[in-house]
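Forwarding the complex inputs:
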Amino acid sequence: MSKVISVVSRDVRFPTSLDLDGSDAVNVDPDYSAAYVLVTLDTGEEGHAFVFTCGRGNEIVTQAIDSYGQLLLGRDGDELVGNLGEASKRLVHDSQMRWLGPEKGVSQMACGALVNALWDIRARREGKPLWLLLSEMAPEELVDVVDFTHITDALTPDQALDILRRGQGGKAERIAELQAGGYPAYTTSPGWLGYSDEKLLRLSREAVADGFGMVKLKVGGSLEDDRRRLGLVRHELPQLPVAIDANQRWDVADAIEWVSALADFEPYWIEEPTSTDDILGHAAIRRGVAPTRVATGEAVHNRIMFKQLLQAGAIDVLQLDSTRVAGVNENVATLLLAARFGVPVCPHAGGVGLCELVQHFSFFDYAAVSTSQEGRFIEYVDHLHEHFAEPVRIAGGRYAAPQLPGNGAEMLLDSRLRWSYPDGAGWREVGDRAAVTEPHMTPAEV
Amino acid sequence: MSKVISVVSRDVRFPTSLDLDGSDAVNVDPDYSAAYVLVTLDTGEEGHAFVFTCGRGNEIVTQAIDSYGQLLLGRDGDELVGNLGEASKRLVHDSQMRWLGPEKGVSQMACGALVNALWDIRARREGKPLWLLLSEMAPEELVDVVDFTHITDALTPDQALDILRRGQGGKAERIAELQAGGYPAYTTSPGWLGYSDEKLLRLSREAVADGFGMVKLKVGGSLEDDRRRLGLVRHELPQLPVAIDANQRWDVADAIEWVSALADFEPYWIEEPTSTDDILGHAAIRRGVAPTRVATGEAVHNRIMFKQLLQAGAIDVLQLDSTRVAGVNENVATLLLAARFGVPVCPHAGGVGLCELVQHFSFFDYAAVSTSQEGRFIEYVDHLHEHFAEPVRIAGGRYAAPQLPGNGAEMLLDSRLRWSYPDGAGWREVGDRAAVTEPHMTPAEV
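Prediction (whole assembly, two chains):
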């Protein structure tokens, strides 16, 4: 028996809006941020996790983590870490707090961070990176961590068990293959809207030289610019697949029209063509822009929404995110749903720390769930990795397998302190550059 | 020109879990609460609003209100109140904070409270209750407050304008009719799961005597209990329509099976049979339980979800809620969507203050949007009204038209202070009754 003795959150923000890294048609000026949490047991064990946000409002998420953290304080750490399905339900289905979602937005993300911190403790106890812990768990134990509430019309526990049992065959070989050769990546680094054509092209050439299998361009600001930028890359690097990403910029009819106007450049997929809530809209867009693939997921708030995107035949590519949903458990549910429908998962990453976190799900997916890398890549963006205890390692356009025990969330203490908002030393230095904290509306709305 | 000089939130909670008022299959022990906000201009004008919650976590919503409030501080109050469409977009589409939803959960509800506080100032300026302000606004001005982002595939500004222009005919007569005779209500007061059969039957008889057109029973705890309770009311009061409400208790197949097992009692509607996010699930359930009507909405987080419920033919009754979405503007959008699809709106109320708020939307709907009361009632629950500046008035089973200028949210200052959590005098008195704050999981999950 052990005891949860503290749950401490911290508001960490990086002033990325100063450089327009991460600018797209909707997120014009993000300050990549982490609502960070450290869960400590009386054994001295620590679990790290965070929720990614775009800056303003990060303090709402730290408040939510503190509030949900009250449900863990004083509880038996062994019981929580030994039964992570139950631990997650205790947070997500709290009878009073459920109203705040249910299962969506700030409250869902805060639950996810706490669940992930418990998984971090579990993985450290077993001395394994999260992906390997998951890959080596028995199918029965994995099914126990999944919350099947409201998804049994698409995936029952028995069906999940079947998928995972099939995934046992050849698993050791696939784990060895991942350890040796990693997992394919694509890169979004060249394609931010704020970058010049010259920078776009230079970074795209570097992406090819670095062995990435695809690049992604942000679109949706101006059709003329989109045609020029997409044309430039496709003309200069004709063998390089190029995905495009509108970050929910369009209504349904606009999406079909705009994507059709880019069809001659054969984009590999169109990502987030419209509101992430719009299941029927995605289905209509997919029919309207075929054969261009439709992808979404980074802002999809729970397994029930993913279930419907799959049931409606609305997506070709499922892009789960590591800090949007209620943690590892819900992402395992989503991987199983995707496998059941035969849709490839290409996780969302970028921001700060999302690459470090999300890679674990693709490694696990290959080892034990879909057992395929066909049509699958993990997104890669090359900034802010230096702040983490185990930065992602990319070689030959592939993610190398994480090695350190844990879930990948641990940010260096120096970084956490320096970029604590608003009082960290880093923020005191940039504080006079007022643009960072000046509110804007998204261009779609101005 | 005027200026927003303060945005002050307050955590107000009532210890309703002590009496099991409001107990249902999912919300077993709510402490009805308000994340209250007061927006003050330098003219001395005040706007009141709140977000309803079930207790724990109310402090997350007050934090969110404070955070979004920063976007209003120092701004021109006349500009905000004069262009409420723009004011809403400035909050909802803030480029960094949008990530926290987008447009859902805690962040959406907080935006809604601030938007509603601005409407309160506007209505007080014009000396009208909100419903009358809305009813007397020109169609063009109403369309200007609606955010059509991501709904134009179902409702364009021109289509909205057509609906509102048609609603001009006979409007003055309907307003006079509402002033004289009010709007029909149904009551949920008899049907809480925590009540004995005797109390259920006594309160149902009182409901008939009081002239209510329908009662609603909570179901989903045990099928045997549901059959007994529903049978009892239907047998003793055969002329009284009885709706049932499962508060999202079931998966899709369970919902169809359970509701079918209650079909011989001819429930008027089944409310929230499954996850409020499950559009396709509601559509399947509606097909599976026909001719029993399917109703949902109190936890539907934005106009994009309502759009799809309507597009999918998933609901017979739309139950908008006054504090779940981004305020008056988004509820106007939802009323217009419902009118476009010909689906009656029967708003959700109860909790604390929800009756006081939501009545305005039905009065407006009748005066200027659907222009019908056919198959429409406002929910009524008879507790906690004494805390408001203008408590709802019910006569002959109908809501009387609110008279005081404003949106109906103003809670008496004494009540706000007494039930401030955790330091108000009321909470100091009940504080030793520990059951109030002890976390539980929902029975579905235990």
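Chain B touches chain A through 74 residues (CB under 8 Å).
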